[in-house]
Amino acid sequence: MLGKNNNTDSGKTQAKIGTLIGPGAVFDGNITAPETIRIDGTLNGDCTCQGNVILGTDGVIIGNVEAQNVTLSGKVTGDVHVYGKLELFSTAKLAGNVTARSLIVDEDACFDGKCTMTTMQGETSSKSFDRKKSKAAESESIPTAEQN
Fold first, then answer.
1. DSSP string of 43-92?
2. 7-26 pLDDT, tens per residue?
3. Edge-to-edge strand ranges of the sheet holding 42-44
4. Which residues touch 146 (CB under 8 Å, ≥6 apart)?
5. Greatest CA separation found in the chain?
6. What pTM, to 2 d.p., does this model score?
7. Which H helix or E strand runs over 132?
8. Backbone phi and psi for residue 115, each to the nearest 5 degrees, phi listed first
9. In which region does residue 134 sit, left (phi positive, over 0), alpha (psi from -120 to 50) or beta (all else)?
10. What's the CA gap between 94 and 32, in Å, rounded?
11. Are 39 and 22 in contact (CB under 8 A)?
12. For the chain, give me the number of helices (H) and strands (E)?
């Protein structure tokens, strides 16, 4: 049937790669894309993607990254803002601050920066922690032997 995708992959959704920067390629400037971007070369600039960003083992990004999900196997020097999941594989090196809902860091991955976790709605959960208020709330909610 025309226009129908008959490719079934057992219920798994696979992101369509809309943009590819291949091995050895160097892109100077900012890039914006509506679909998934895979980078196996070098990007000297910011990367903004409505889909996912996949950075291969030999990939390098010198700039900020903003995307739905980001998978890193290469090197990023810049801040990363992810609305969903950021995953750093063992070969990844990230020097920059992270804002993400979910962060997965494999053993041997390198992350040098500050991480801010967000809620599902994208709001940051970076309210300052007050140990005194936390202790007071904890003591109010835990009954003591005298109260029983």
1. EES-EEESSEEEE-TT-EEES-EEESEEEESSEEES-EEESSEEEE-TT-
2. 333 333 456 889 999 999 99
3. 26-28, 42-44, 60-62, 75-77, 93-95, 110-112
4. none
5. 75
6. 0.72
7. helix 131-141
8. -115, 130
9. alpha
10. 21
11. no
12. 1, 18
Q: Let me know the angle formed at the C-alpha of 120 by 87 and 126, rounded to the nearest 5 degrees.
A: 85
The token pair at 78 is 């810049």
The answer to whether 67 and 82 are in contact (CB under 8 A) is yes
Contact 39, 54 (CB under 8 A): yes
Q: Which amino acid is at 21?
A: I
Q: Summarize pLDDT for 22-81 with one digit per residue, the tens.
A: 999 999 999 999 999 999 999 999 999 999 999 999 999 999 999 999 999 999 999 999
- 114 residue type, one letter: K
For the record, the structure tokens of 18 come out as: 């809309």
Q: What is the pLDDT of residues 78-129, one digit of tens each?
A: 999 999 999 999 999 999 999 999 999 999 999 999 999 998 554 544 444 4
